Amino acid sequence: MPKVFIERENKHVEVTASSVKEILQKLKINPEVVIISKNNELVTEDSKVSEKDEIKLLSVISGG
Amino acid sequence: MPCKNCQEKPVIKLTNVNVSLCKQHFLRYFEKKVKKTIRTFNLIEKGNKIGIALSGGKDSFTVLSILKQFQDKKIITLEALAIDEGIKAYRDLTNAKKFCKDNNITLHILNYEDFFNHSLDKMVKKFKNKTPCSFCGVFRRYLLNYGSKKFKFDKLATGHNLDDESQSILMNQFRNNPEVSARLGPITGVMIDKRFIRRIKPLYFVTEKETTTYSFLKGFPVKFSECPYASFGYRNSVRDMLNEFELKYLGTKYSIVDSFIKILPSLKQQFKEAKTLSSCKLCNEPTSKKICQACEYVRELKDYKNR
Ligand code: SF4
Ligand SMILES: [Zn+2]
Ligand SMILES: [Zn+2]
């Protein structure tokens, strides 16, 4: 399962999914509020993911 | 979906128009859009000294880095102004200082402690029954305007983006505050009161997501952090709602802002500051009352000690 880091909550989770879109759907995260990095490169929701990929969901909302 | 222009690997899918762009084409698209806003609304004029309200967040670094291109072409001069509220667990201007140094931009820092005798941390302890953002916002606006005059800025550039603006427009609508909306827009202060330095918003037509992408690709030194006193309950609800709408109906945020711009001139006309503002008896800053809100709060903070 790809490892997913959710920056806003500062936590790591594992999600069974084959695309970024599926990850976002399972975590109920709107693609408008994150940018997505896969192995430290920016990708879009359409990107496929595999077992060893490290996904980071970086928050677009700044805190005050 | 590959990049619309070159078939390269995309870094972002633009939600408002449903196209994907690669790094190179996204950077070009983004800068073009910001520069077009600057031109269309005459945000800067040749010879202007522009101040940048620098928070150390992605929006302010983005504004600085794009406006710097105008400075490099000798169209304007640039300086930065940061406000240090004094929030121990949050406000850290290390990155802002470094960024300005690397870019050769003079950075001025004004802090609450010097001006109001209290850091925000101290204020919060005294003002137990007030929402921190309410007085914090008054003090910040005060110092931004004060600093802009002191450092002789012609205009002050802020990092407000399409998301911020569409949220504000809806919030004012929902709360029946049209006179507050009349003060929005890509450039403020049409009723030229010299005591208010005009604000400009170069990121007016780019989204929060686009700005974050730009900042990431440019490698700006931003850390994710949240103010411990933040209370954006209402704004957050509006933001969530707007993001859900945007997902279902592409271009919603843009439409809100674009249609708003069309009615803004009549809105401004209708809510022209009827009464001319007087000057605060204590600090001379413009106010509609005898004593400005910032001085009023400072007085309360002082009284608190004597109670
Ligand atoms: S979130 Fe509120 S309290 Fe914190 S810095 Fe912003 S305005 Fe001030
Ligand atoms: Zn491309
Ligand atoms: Zn005053």
Keywords:
heterodimer, A: about 60 residues, mainly beta, Ubiquitin-like (UB roll), five-stranded mixed sheet, globular, B: Rossmann fold, five-stranded parallel sheet, two-stranded antiparallel ribbon, about 10% strand, binds iron/sulfur cluster, binds zinc ion
Structural account:
The complex is a heterodimer of chains A (64) and B (307). Chain A has 64 residues and is mainly β. In chain A, 12% of the residues lie in helices and 34% in strands. Chain A has a single domain, classed as Roll (Ubiquitin-like (UB roll)), CATH 3.10.20.30. Chain A is built from 1 helix and 5 strands, in the order ββαβββ. In chain A, strands 2-1-5-3-4 form a 5-stranded mixed beta sheet, with no helix packed on it. Chain A is globular, with a radius of gyration of 11 Å. Chain A starts with a strand and ends in a 5-residue tail after the last strand. The mean pLDDT of chain A is 92. Chain B has 307 residues and is an alpha/beta fold. Chain B has one domain: HUPs (Rossmann fold, 3-Layer(aba) Sandwich). In chain B, strand 4, helix 3 and strand 5 form a beta-alpha-beta unit. Chains A and B meet through strand 3 and strand 4 of A and strand 1, helix 9 and helix 10 of B.
